[in-house]
Design brief:
With 158 residues, the protein is mainly α. It has seven helices and two strands. It has helices at 5-13, 26-32, 42-47, 73-78, 81-117, 127-142, 150-155; strands at residues 56-58, 120-122. The chain has a two-stranded parallel sheet with strand order 1-2. α1 (5-13) crosses α6. It starts with a helix and ends with a helix.
């Protein structure tokens, strides 16, 4: 588990005993039994060979990563208005392309995880998971970890 309050509290609400492990140490932690489960995308866990040890992956849609360019606020603000507009436009234009690439990479990783590493990929109904973490969602909003109403807007997405 990575050290971030929202995922930690979410998994604890689901009944997990969370152990924080740095990403480079996850393979060893699984191999030695320090942890018996992990989070992350199929793509990440396939690429880092975690599936050599973890033969089951349950998709709870908790993490779908997009690989986007990042820039510090200071650097962005040092750009001219024209440059800022160009960066914003490039991000807008590339969003759908990056999303399509990540969806395709996820599909390939799912296939390879099943066929090359013998991983069982489980896609359960999400309703029970969402219901179980509802108390944590309320706490996130109450404590200012997420903007009030954000969880409701996310749950309304189909």
């Amino acid at each position: 588990m990575f050290e971030s309050e929202i995922p930690l509290k979410t998994y604890q609400t689901l009944g997990a005993s969370t152990v924080i492990v740095s990403w480079p140490d996850v393979y060893t932690a699984i191999t030695t039994g320090v942890v018996d489960g992990l989070t992350g995308t199929v793509l990440d866990n396939f690429e880092f060979k975690h599936f050599e040890q973890a033969k089951f992956w349950t998709n709870i849609s908790e993490n779908f990563q997009l690989h986007l360019p990042y820039m510090s606020k200071d650097v962005f603000e040092s750009l001219t208005e024209e440059q800022q507009a160009a960066v914003a436009q490039a991000m807008s234009d590339m969003g759908p392309v990056i999303h399509a690439d990540m969806v395709a990479a996820d599909q390939v990783a799912r296939l390879k995880a099943r066929t090359e590493m013998g991983v069982a990929l489980i896609d359960p109904p999400m309703g029970p998971w969402i219901d179980k973490v509802a108390p944590a969602h309320s706490e996130f909003e109450k404590n200012g970890l997420v903007e009030e109403g954000l969880i409701g807007r996310i749950l309304a997405i189909e």
